[in-house]
Amino acid sequence: MTRPATTLRRSLGLTTAVLLVISSMIGSGIFKKAAPMSAALMDDRLVLLAWLVAGMFTMFGVFSYAGLATLTSEAGGQMEYFRLVYGRFWAFLYGWASFAVIQTASIASIAYVFAESVNSVLPLPDWLAACDSIRLFGLTPFANSGVKLLAVATILILTLINYFGVEEGGWLNNVLTLAKVTGIIMLIWMGFHYGQGTADQAPGVETARHLSRNWNDLMGPFFLALLSAFWAFDGWINVTFITGEIRSPQRNIPIAIIAGTAVVMLLYYLVNMAFFRVMGPEEMAAIHTAGDRVVGVEVALRAMGPGGLWAIAVLIMLCTLGATNASLMSTARIYYRMANTGLFFKAAGQAHPRFQTPHKALLMQMVWSVILVFSGTFDQLTDMLIFASFIFYGSGALGLLIMKRRRVIVSRVIGYPVLPVVFVLFCILLVGNTLISMPDESLTGLGLIALGVPLYAYFNKE
Known about the structure:
20 helices, 0% strand
């Protein structure tokens, strides 16, 4: 395969790579997931345990992919690993799922949450209110148009910034990430400061009775809580997509995903401890039942009064804006690499002659993400494919075992072979449990992935 005349430029260092991991992971989940987890478990200690377990298994996956990252210095990350380990078909299915749903729907969803956060403090005009009743294919694309138009504008502006240079996108990522980490640290301090002297609200005191339940009765609720936590932890893989623009990637990518994920684990645990210093799990469960409230907002309101609404809204804006930028910045490189290996539209494999960015891949990603915003189906799509992410994560850990056995990877891998084996088994358990407990969503998700099979035949015919 002939390499493109203009290639991507290696200009991002280790610091940007670590901050990209943090920014990709911290979006809106940390402010929302304590509520459904509390509703499932009704015990703050079990909720904190779920965060620890999810973080632990996430780190097992991180260690596995740190080993895989030594395979190549090319862009594409997970897709490129699959191509090297399993061949073109599995790599294409992952890339197709990323473009059709996993990554683009995530971009649309996070941008939408950003627009909702703005709307909560600065109500947006419903510019297309006259078109609210119009239905296309059973959808209402123009409903809530103020929020949708801001979400679309966010995607357009961030794509434009990244179009003109990876350094510009990296600089924006660094600024937003440092700002939101600072804000989260302040949120943690606020929660612990508010909870001083209120021992009745300390973790576990109000709800100790729930621990007397039989563990078998807790397995189902604990699994649901884990899914919520895994959703919040997702995104650590994104930095691997941009391998082609990171200096010394086979050294810096493993360090970045391990260090970035460790920081996020610590922040998530401390944030949830702070939340439980302010309110108990029964109150959080009630927030989840209400359906239109965010636990982070309610905690800030109680601890800080009306000013808390503005503070938390700004923090959520920073987190979601940063996560949107990190996601669209990195994932366009999947389609760039697919195109350069003959598995996607050739135009996506072009690098801009001046800016050295995958400009056409960025634009294709932007167009489909905008369509998903107007469709309003992004949340349903991501729900359908949460479990699919673990099919691919497990495939990566299995790939590490294969490449170590073939002696293609000779570098030391933390916890090898125990942790990759445990992670593969866990992924199998999680996917199987999801298929049983959520058969409609799971089978629909598998169907969406299977739609890529005829496309593979088309792209692979050459």
